[in-house]
Amino acid sequence: MIATNVRKDAAIVVLTGAGISADSGVATFRGPDGLWEGHRVEDVATPEAFASDPVLVHHFYDQRRARLLEVAPNAAHFALARLEHQWAGSVLVVTQNVDDLHERSGSAALVHMHGALNSGWCLACNARFAWSGAMGEGARCPRCGTVGKVRPDIVWFGEMPYEMERIDEAVRACDLFVSIGTSGAVYPAAGLVQTARYVGAHCVELNLDPSQGSIFFHETRLGRAAEIVPAFVDELLAG
């Protein structure tokens, strides 16, 4: 059992992807047809798309933001929050997800490397701020008052993920690296396991199916996140 091999004060980094929120009813990033909720990724998730058709992009993210009110954290989210609060060592959750389910389950040591739906970014003054409800083209920046320069605070393709220095430092210092519900196809997140393994961390994958980077993990456990994550956390805390 993994718990017998992990010090009780070990530093843990957990990477989460769309698979952890799928059990809450949040659509995974890209379906088998290559579309993201009916849209080509290039049409809704690039700076070029926003520049050419801001109405479509705003509508897409306004819809996703509204759906957050219809979903709730599942057992996997709550298990990670419990791990953070009960583990003697450090726990950092690095999520690729833009939903707020980790926060709503009680996680505090959290990095949204791809941004968040409930955050806005003003291109006029560079301020970032909490945002709820529709945004749209006519959104006014609460900091500088400029209208029409607010965009979703989401990291799109071609943009640098947030807090990479903090993430890299945490991964290089961790003893246990856990990847949950990720495809292993999107970089730089997909490369974190290689860094963790290089520095000697034990690497565990919890996923519905093996990821593209499964070869880099010491251990892979397959199943729904809402089932296997709580069991894994129970094992760690009881070990």
Describe this structure in words.
This protein is α/β, with parallel strands linked by helices. 32% of the residues lie in helices and 20% in strands. The protein has helices at residues 18-22, 41-44, 47-52, 54-67, 75-86, 101-105, 164-173, 192-198, 225-238, and strands at residues 12-16, 35-36, 39-40, 91-95, 110-112, 115-122, 128-130, 150-154, 176-180, 202-207, 219-222. It has a 6-stranded parallel sheet, sandwiched between helices. A 3-stranded antiparallel sheet has the order 7-6-8. Strand 6 (115-122) and strand 7 form a beta hairpin. Helix 5 packs parallel to helix 9 (225-238) and helix 7 (164-173) runs parallel beside helix 8 (192-198). The longest helix is centred in the N-terminal third of the chain and has 14 residues, at 54-67.
